Amino acid sequence: MKVTYYGHSCFSVYANGKHILFDPFITPNELARDVDVDAIKADYIFISHAHYDHILDVERIAKNTGAKVLGNFEIYNWLLKNGIENAHPINPGGKYDFDFGTVKCVTAQHSSSFMDGSYGGIASGFVLTTIDGNFYYSGDTALTLDMQLIPKFTSLDFAVFPIGDGLTMGIEEAVEASKLVGVTKILGVHYDTFGFIVMDHQKAYDGFKNAGLELYLPEIDSTILL
């Protein structure tokens, strides 16, 4: 599958002819200043939780593209209040079929609130099954044994994990998460954007390589195959 990285935890997967975007946070990110937000294609947008660094550009991109936006029930209501009518609720445990394939919402261990401090619902991750391949995006999370349930239902081609530490998993925990879900290819996200999650890239590459895993840290606004 073609995967385009837009910085922080924002990435897009092209699967079954559809552009599937996750956690759009681009315009405030100095590292992503060369990304043309209005040129981003999206048929679907998935929001893992309500923190501003995962949701800030969702209104702009959704209104530009007409994409269907999915998030937990609290995010769904927030979207409707902000004029995004093409919204769809999905909570952990829930599964839906769409024209690209199937999405299963799973638990993430993380806090969640909107920019005004109001409750943002439970944080979550997503498992997508498509004819082009299957993958798991954990969202912001700590390492949790719940992850070992994922391969009982879906055989994954790759996973997307936060590796910047501090607010989420770091390198060592993401390596263990990879083992729990049964993948060897990992796209690392949620690092370098802020001073408290700046990461040693070589240490990250070495940590995964020593475990027999392949870590991908693509340049922002670049596309790779996974």
UniProtKB/TrEMBL annotation:
<dbReference type="InterPro" id="IPR050114">
    <property type="entry name" value="UPF0173_UPF0282_UlaG_hydrolase"/>
</dbReference>
<keyword id="KW-0378">Hydrolase</keyword>
<dbReference type="InterPro" id="IPR036866">
    <property type="entry name" value="RibonucZ/Hydroxyglut_hydro"/>
</dbReference>
<protein>
    <submittedName>
        <fullName>L-ascorbate metabolism protein UlaG (Beta-lactamase superfamily)</fullName>
    </submittedName>
</protein>
<dbReference type="Pfam" id="PF12706">
    <property type="entry name" value="Lactamase_B_2"/>
</dbReference>
<dbReference type="GO" id="GO:0016787">
    <property type="term" value="F:hydrolase activity"/>
</dbReference>
<feature type="domain" description="Metallo-beta-lactamase">
    <location>
        <begin position="7"/>
        <end position="190"/>
    </location>
</feature>
<dbReference type="InterPro" id="IPR001279">
    <property type="entry name" value="Metallo-B-lactamas"/>
</dbReference>
